[in-house]
Amino acid sequence: MIEIPEAIVLSQQIKDVLMGKRIDYVIANQSPHKFAWFFGEPNAYDRRLSGKIIEKACAYGGYIEISLGTTRLLFSEGVNLRYLIKGEKLPQKHQLLLGFEDESMLIASIQMYGGMWSFEEGEFDNIYYKVAKEKPSPLSKDFDFKYYEQILKDESLQKKSAKALLATDQRIPGLGNGVLQDILFNAKIHPKRKVSTLSDKEIKGIFNSIKSTLHEMVLKGGRDTEKDLFRCSGGYITKLSKKTVKYPCKVCGGQIIKKAYLGGSIYYCEGCQQE
Fold first, then answer.
1. Minimal CA–CA distance to 62: which of 126, 143, 120, 129?
2. Would you say the pTM of this structure is higher than 0.85?
């Protein structure tokens, strides 16, 4: 799933390889998917996008926004993006294909769910997208400790867990269940720890871990559990993920535990992260 590191990496790759390219044709909804979301009718995408030139790509939380004049093309967290050059084999199934004049292509496909929305600037009314654009990225200077403390001032958070603090209710758009695991591991905080039990030192430790862990993930091209525009795995080796759950913790040698919690899986080290 696209989260903050992957959105940044993918948007930069799109800028590197697609900037200035003109769309020749569009195929939308070739492989219908119940949870593939479009803005308006998919069969209108060819008319709406053909002839337009890729001008810019930006990351907002877990969203990737491509600008084509006043037209926007927005991809959400569940979309798999792939760039193909002339002659490369097309995947069997895809939900959106942009064909360029040089015969290269951008392919978008959905496994679980995802949005591929094409709209005119200001036309798309989606609260999650709006919040992601309005709130500062945790990697920006605007997301400082003072801003982080404002989040914690919400009294309803005191009874909630560290996972709920960071990865629910769009408090930090794009910080999801995937990157959460290593952020809390590096801060030595159990995902189920109640916010009310955190010391000032631990609160500061989580803040520092948000900044440093996400920075490292971006610097290394995203997580090794995700793919980039060229279908290469990210260079950041996750400490807690589906790839590490069978192995002992590299810090203390303790067992890495996987449990279902708050609508997803959590991973933690029984030695490093005490509940």
1. 129
2. yes
